[in-house]
Specification:
The complex is a heterodimer of chains A (215) and B (213). With 215 residues, chain A is mainly α. The longest helix of chain A is centred in the last third of the chain and has 26 residues. Chain A is globular, with a radius of gyration of 19 Å. Chain A starts with 21 loop residues before the first helix and ends with a helix. Chain B has 213 residues and is mostly helical. In chain B, helix 4 packs antiparallel against helix 7, helix 4 packs parallel to helix 8 and helix 7 runs antiparallel to helix 8. The longest helix of chain B is centred in the last third of the chain and has 44 residues. Chain B is elongated. The chains are: A mainly alpha (215), B mainly alpha (213). Chains A and B meet through helix 2, helix 3, helix 6, helix 7 and helix 9 of A and helix 1, helix 2 and helix 3 of B.
Chain lengths: 215, 213
């Protein structure tokens, strides 16, 4: 059985292992520093420091907002959800266990807030064309590479039914496992996998249709 | 797509181009406005955690006890020098509250023992105090009872903290100081009531002698 190598080792493609290059090793060290720094901020925030919590907000606001935006499909609702998520995080921070990542924990809270919002506003959410455009426009400016393709992709994601979209966002974009996503969404792992399959199929069909229309 | 992503693609079997596109989407998007001021306005002040605060609470309790002891000593001294003894021979005094009833057993954290001599002295002084506290003026007695109650409350708090942080040297010092203060107050009160009791007794004897003459 192949063994993982130390940071900075060469790539051993014959064994199928992808090992970090020197540049990636530096990234790993930086990530370790970030984690240590974040733990200090969390500890200070638990002790009541709003300055430390603001620093945590600055680190995670963009990712949390993007998650909320992709899941709700509405910029204003996503802002509300982001605010609620951070307020709830502050409230429950003393119970946060530092063994896990603050970002993952915050994601979990944000997903919960979004689901509550979705339940409250179910009738007004959906795949309306105006919503697709709104999200696509919000996201377009942030896509550095190939904005047209990214915009199409974001619009296609927003057009998905909520269940499929939520799974695609969590697993496909944010890299959560099916187990994590299922737990966050309160669904069975099998349902999560089925929703991802459905989302991929719908997304592929949608992108093909757009490409066909463009031709 | 970055080199790293390309290598990851090469290593991952069955990954589709769609998955790669999804992964390349930006994970973060800045909100159109700063949401922090609205969030900050909604943050409830957090009560400080017990762990860092016990020492301050205990220290505050000891400071309070020290202040109370000083005040008690001053009050008792004033009463003694000005001769405002409430109990003169034949005078009726309201029954005092049993000071020992409020006293908690002296602990020194789990697994620790106070000096048996200290415990014996404490028991003896408390018993003497209960006998003689009736001789003190009402205001002094009330103040004394209040201060002793505060000392015992402080000792309870420190003992509770020691149960969570056994062996903490600061807490052990604070607890010892509290017990020493209590002992000093008990000793002072008993000494004072002894002195006042002797003076009153001498005066009664002198009065009897004068009548006999």
């Amino acid at each position: 059985m192949p063994q993982p190598a130390a940071l900075g080792d060469r790539v051993d493609e014959h064994e199928g292992w992808v090992l970090p290059t020197g540049e990636e090793a530096v990234d790993e060290v930086q990530r370790a520093r970030d984690v240590a720094e974040e733990r200090k901020l969390v500890a200070a925030a638990v002790d009541g420091s709003s300055r430390a919590f603001e620093a945590l907000y600055r680190r995670h606001a963009a990712r949390t907002y993007a998650l909320c935006l992709r899941m709700t499909g509405q910029a204003a609702t996503a802002e509300d959800c982001t605010q609620d998520a951070f307020v709830q995080a502050w409230r429950h921070l003393p119970r946060f266990e530092t063994r896990s990542s603050f970002g993952t924990w915050l994601h979990r809270i944000a997903v919960n807030v979004v689901l509550q919002q979705v339940r409250r506003r179910r009738e007004s959410l959906g795949a309306a064309d105006s919503v697709e455009r709104e999200v696509a426009e919000v996201l377009e400016d942030r896509h550095a590479a190939d904005p047209a393709q990214s915009r199409d992709l974001e619009a296609a994601i927003t057009s998905l039914p909520p269940g499929a979209r939520h799974v695609l966002v969590l697993v496909g974009i944010y890299g959560h496992t099916h187990e994590e996503a299922a737990d966050m969404l309160g669904i069975a792992v099998g349902t999560c996998k089925a929703q991802l399959h459905r989302a991929r199929a719908l997304l592929g069909a949608r992108l093909d249709a757009d490409a066909g229309g463009a031709r | 797509m970055t080199n790293r992503d390309e290598r990851r693609d090469a290593a991952s079997l069955g990954e589709t181009r769609l998955d790669a596109w999804l992964r390349d989407l930006p994970q973060g998007v800045e909100p159109s406005r700063d949401l922090w001021p609205a969030i900050e306005a909604r943050l409830e002040p957090r009560a400080r955690r017990w762990a860092p605060s016990w020492a301050w609470q205990a220290a505050a309790a000891v400071l309070l006890v020290a202040g109370s002891s000083l005040l008690t000593a001053t009050l008792l001294d004033d009463d003694g020098t000005s001769g405002k003894m409430a109990a003169t021979p034949g005078a009726t005094v309201a029954a005092p509250a049993d000071v020992s009833a409020a006293a908690v057993p002296a602990n020194y954290a789990a697994g620790s023992q106070l000096d048996p001599e200290y415990l014996a002295a404490r028991r003896q002084l408390t018993a003497m105090l209960n006998e003689r506290i009736a001789n003190l003026p009402d205001s002094t007695r009330a103040k004394l009872e209040q201060n002793l109650a505060e000392m015992r409350r402080a000792a309870e708090q420190i003992n509770a903290a020691l149960a969570e942080q056994p062996g903490d040297p600061l807490l052990q010092d604070l607890l010892l100081k509290t017990y020493q203060d209590e002992l000093a107050v008990l000793a002072n009160v008993n000494q004072l009531t002894n002195a006042l009791g002797s003076s009153a007794s001498d005066a009664t004897k002198a009065e009897s002698k004068r009548i006999d003459l």
